Amino acid sequence: MKTPKIVTIKEQVYEIIKNRILTQEYQFGEKINIGSLSKELGISNSPIREALSQLGQEGLVVSTPNSGLRVVNMSKRDLFEQAQMVYFWMIGSYRYCAENDKTEQLVRDLEECLKKQKKYYEEKNHYKFIYYSDYFDRCILATTENSRLLKQFDAIFPLFFLASGSYLQRSEKEWHLSIQEHEKILLAIKEKKHDEVQEAIKVHYFKPSWTLDI
């Protein structure tokens, strides 16, 4: 018989604050008031500080000498560099997948992920829609079975989620475009049109609004 996992107060607070950041209840750059949270949750400051420390390690919270703790602000350069990094990972992972004849399993994984993305599009569930939108991309990396690569991706997943949320939250049109781009990537993979896959991934990741003049 499994022993039930005991969730600490710090872990509960961590999930509460993280959820508020990822759903953008706490906006980019917004100050996090420990005293207000302590009063709201009816707990001491210690578990809140511990939770914020963990969120700081994940890059969701930043500390500045004069401003205290704030939700991270994502500049145009931050968005560009993050998109560029994941794009490089995806292209390399897909090439490995194609060269090692792993596309059949990848297609099954992507179809399942896209099915869920469409489901949450219909339900207008913003949080889960973004999760499966980003997880679609993770499926391509997962074909490498490279634990170090996946560990790195998972480490930035909260920031990746936040960036995606910032982009997709602007309009329902962006939600629909995300699905269309994933459908195009999936179709090209099914048809083993490797150059088209790579071009579709590039289009998916480099939005005009994220481009830098560098």
From TrEMBL:
Domain of life: Bacteria
A Pfam family the protein falls into: GntR
SUPFAM superfamilies: GntR ligand-binding domain-like, Winged helix' DNA-binding domain
Keywords noted in UniProt: DNA-binding, Transcription, Transcription regulation
Gene3D superfamilies reported in the protein's UniProt record: GntR ligand-binding domain-like, Winged helix-like DNA-binding domain superfamily/Winged helix DNA-binding domain
Residues in HTH gntR-type domain copies: 7-74
UniProt-recorded Gene Ontology molecular function terms: DNA binding; DNA-binding transcription factor activity
Protein name in the entry: HTH gntR-type domain-containing protein
Source organism: Priestia megaterium (Bacillus megaterium)
